[in-house]
Amino acid sequence: MDQKVLITTANQMVSSGRGILAADESSGTIKKRLDNINVESTEENRRDYRELLFTTKGIENYISGVILFDETIRQSSSNNVPFPELLSTKGIVPGIKVDMGAKDLALSHGEKITEGLDGLRERLLEYVQLGAKFTKWRAVIEIKDGGLPSQLCIELNAHALARYAALSQESGLVPIVEPEVLMDGKHTIDHCKEVTERTLKTVFHELFKQNILLEGMVLKPNMVISGSDCAEQADSNEIAAKTVGTLLRCVPSSVPGITFLSGGQTDTFATQNLNAMNALDSHPHPWELSFSYGRALQAACLKAWNGNSDNLENAQKVFSHRCKCNSAARDGSYSEKTEQEISAA
Question: N or C: which end of the chain has fewer CB within 10 A?
Answer without folding.
Answer: C
